[in-house]
Amino acid sequence: MDDLKYGTRNKRGDFTPGEKLEGAPVFVWPPRPLKFLRWLPGYFFPWNALFFLLGLGIWNWATPAKETLATLDWRWIAYLWLRNSAIVFVLFGAVELRLYVQRSQGNRFKFNGLFPADKKSDVFMFGSQNVDNMIRTFGTGIPIWTAYEVLMLHLWAIGWGPWTTFAEHPWALVALGLAIPMIHETHFFCIHWLIHRAPLYKWVHSVHHNSVNPSPWSSLSMHPVEHLLYWSDVLIHLVLPSHPLLVLYHLQVTGTGAIVGHIGFDKIEIGDERGMGTHAYAHYLHHKYFEVNYSDGVMPFDRWFGTWHDGSKEGDALMQARFERKRARINASPPTSTQ
Ligand SMILES: [Zn+2]
Ligand SMILES: [Zn+2]
């Protein structure tokens, strides 16, 4: 595909999409029903539909029976851990293999013209972004994800919590299922904003931001404290009436879904003429500029708090003006006493 029909490339080889990012027309006033209907398919396809199918498959074919889950036993816990590791290894690995190892589309549609593997850096374990990212993903990420899953499935099996069934409350469960990506994004915005404050940024979140030029393996490359916060959104199923299928879907949206923002390409080419939009640009801008796009634009918080960057030159100017105001505020504040 000719990516320059869809955007521009600068001298460094970085691709910028021609269309600026638009926040979802969900929480807008006045309502925009036609725009909402045009936007809606993208809420489901391809990503959330894929995560739901994964959750459904896991629930039907790869989750132990309720009687087994009622007793904590290392064998089924190890099984969940291996199953989650395998899903991440296969999915993240497949995207990484095609786009970053085989480099099947070169740097067409790639936001950062360089490939992380071409640049060694001391900030990473063994000087390699990929090795560092994989150690963090499989070393603490998947075990913490699995711990949340074990907790939730065990509590369901012993009947602790407001669990219900699709026969009893079908519409409430469908509504919760539809809202899960928005619940995840709301929670992510809150914890993400929090860990960008000092000193949490330095101690915790800087680990994730070491990957300035992210690839799929960067998705779950986080400090263990961030892993703990990141998956805590699933605890909402102990507050709202829910079903374990929705827990498994939610864990996919949060866990596997982290890949969406870290693909590094605006489109994945499918044949010579077609490409699949990735939805990766908003979070790529976050990795590039740090203090923009704390969430991905479905929820309106970045727009409300003035931290939305739509990828355009105007978006850049707004961000620079905000940074200027911040600098001026810091310079104007009285020096703290040393006594
Ligand atoms: Zn990220
Ligand atoms: Zn961040």
UniProtKB/TrEMBL annotation:
Q: Does the keyword Aminoacyl-tRNA synthetase apply?
A: no
Spell out the InterPro entries in the cross-references: Fatty_acid_hydroxylase, Sterol_Desaturase_Related
KW Transmembrane (keyword) present = yes
- A Pfam family per the record: FA_hydroxylase
Q: Which residues form the Fatty acid hydroxylase domain?
A: 180-307
The UniProt entry lists the main location of this chain as membrane
Where's it found, cell-wise?
Answer: Membrane
Residue ranges of the TM segments = 42-61, 81-101, 138-159, 171-195
Q: Which keywords appear in this protein's UniProt record, sorted alphabetically?
A: Membrane, Transmembrane, Transmembrane helix
Q: What is this protein called?
A: Sterol desaturase family protein
Upper lineage is:
Bacteria, Pseudomonadati, Pseudomonadota, Alphaproteobacteria, Hyphomicrobiales
